[in-house]
User: Which sequence fits this backbone?
């Protein structure tokens, strides 16, 4: 959650797509960005021209990102105002730069953004990636931990992963927002007294049914059944439902022709 | 205690797409899977039919995943052989299931896979997600930490994030959660088909008892009961015992005067 302190305003990283070939990928990247709270999209020589109706269609409502996107002639111009830049590559190259995964990169971006720095991530063309000259514009390199036998992320997928890690890095460990969305349904196991009551109800219902074949077998069978009910970790509400289930099955004898509707 | 016998081979999670509407999304999901080492793709009633040339084109070479994809009529059948299943949802719902982020889910899947369990993740239709009945098939729910003002991941993007976290969880042994959800004894949950059989047995026994008060109430009551049985994580042996319990209670009507003592 955002700090209370009046720190310099967070500057969120810019996403810079270099010579993207397909409007669809620009749109998918915009959608990915918006999902994770990023809005600064920069395009270097988009091959299909700009604006792009295909990009807008694929952005699926992320219009703010599409509308604010800026177009540049050169990657150098697109990063000119930034203070710290990553380049994404399919594999580490022989460049004198740190190489990190997207998780480490996101942590670093968060730190720098929190300190008021302007940051960005460069993504290359769909087929050829970034040129060495473009990688050289960056301070460090991000690569993805993909299957070495099938390394084929497209540019929108790479943007998605970086944007997702950016969001995740802003959350306290173990405090993903999904946590707070946890249905407040209480899934704590019931107090044992309630569990024992359910066990007794099962046993009382089973006794006249012939389930416990002989008196000798009964203790072991009871113990097995108790172990199963114990291990299930039922909540208080669940136990109430199961009382109703056992009760209904018990009453079948008393009202042999069902027909009950109460 | 965990068996000393040679550990079962790692079983990687199945990706189950329920009623995917666009072949393109199936292809993009397959590509995402292959990038991160997942291969078991299952499709429930793909709307555009199967096989799909659009899926193959978008898979961008992930042909092994496309070729091995299996098609099912029902989500229930698609998870029948699995022992632990996540459902992905756009937001937490009022269901008595644990809700986690993709990172926690991946750690849990790694742990269960390492223990030889068959696992899977359900993804819903592009527009409407999973129905409550489909979510009810799962043991737990995965949601994504998206921008609350723009939560619009498509199905292929959701698959990408889960597959990426699966890969990342395998790379970072230190990141595994300390909290163990698995007891020490061999209490692996039964395959879903066995659980579903138990659910049906309960329902068939309860139907003539008047438990389901009205036809209108029945679906909700069935869903509640299923959620309880699902959450319990019964093993195959436990399910067999519970079949015996329900069967004995059913027979009470047929032998109205008990007196039976085996």
Assistant:
């Amino acid at each position: 959650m955002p700090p209370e302190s009046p720190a310099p305003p967070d500057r969120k990283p810019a996403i810079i797509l270099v010579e993207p070939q397909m409007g669809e990928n620009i749109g998918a990247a915009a959608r990915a960005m918006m999902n994770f709270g990023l809005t600064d999209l920069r395009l270097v020589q988009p091959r299909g021209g700009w604006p792009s109706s295909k990009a807008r269609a694929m952005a699926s409502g992320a219009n703010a990102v599409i509308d604010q996107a800026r177009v540049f002639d050169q990657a150098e111009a697109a990063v000119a105002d930034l203070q710290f830049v990553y380049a994404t590559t399919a594999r580490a190259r022989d460049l004198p730069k740190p190489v990190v995964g997207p998780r480490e990169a996101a942590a670093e971006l968060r730190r720098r953004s929190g300190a008021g720095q302007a940051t960005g991530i460069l993504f290359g063309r769909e087929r050829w990636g970034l040129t060495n000259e473009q990688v050289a514009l960056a301070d460090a390199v991000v690569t993805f931990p993909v299957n070495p036998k099938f390394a084929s992320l497209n540019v929108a997928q790479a943007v998605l992963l970086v944007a997702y890690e950016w969001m995740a890095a802003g959350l306290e460990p173990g405090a993903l927002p999904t946590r707070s969305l946890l249905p407040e349904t209480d899934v704590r196991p019931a107090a044992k007294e309630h569990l024992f009551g359910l066990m007794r109800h099962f046993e009382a219902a089973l006794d006249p049914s012939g389930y416990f074949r002989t008196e000798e077998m009964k203790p072991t069978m009871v113990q097995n059944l108790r172990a199963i009910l114990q291990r299930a970790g039922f909540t208080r509400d669940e136990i109430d439902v199961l009382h109703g289930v056992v009760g209904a099955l018990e009453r079948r004898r008393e009202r042999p022709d069902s027909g009950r509707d109460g």
Remarks:
- The longest strand of chain A covers residues 14-18.
- Residues 39 and 149 of chain A are 33 Å apart (CA to CA).
- The radius of gyration of chain A is 30 Å.
- Chain A touches chain B through 75 residues (CB under 8 Å).
